[in-house]
Amino acid sequence: MNLTIQKKSSLAPSLMRLAQLQRKAVDRLSLQEAVNAAEKHVQAKAQLSTVESHLQLKPARWKKHPDAAILPMLMHSKETGWCVLTSLNGRGEWVAEVWDVTQNQWTEITTDIKRDAEFAILSMAPPFHASKSPVAR
Fold it and tell me: What is the C-alpha separation between 19 and 107, in angstroms, rounded?
């Protein structure tokens, strides 16, 4: 399989896929604006923090190791860039979804957890506005 991953532009598709897996609606233009601001940073935590502040999301919880009980989660490594960790298969291999630029589609890969990998648990739920609640009216 010939898989082409663009590390620089993998944050936006990974966040969109995470939102889809969580069944949350995300404004694509706001997300793209947040990602453009975040790509000025080199470190993964700084990038995600910028996205959180732009989209008014709750701060991500960072983990040193993935946990199958709290999937899906974002994974960042120098090798693959951003991707979405989705499951642990029967062989004990972690399964991730990465955006393949040449095929223009999501591809499932099994990945070894590298020492430089960082894991973030992020809820893509939009902030609650009491003034827009139909119950409060």
Answer: 17
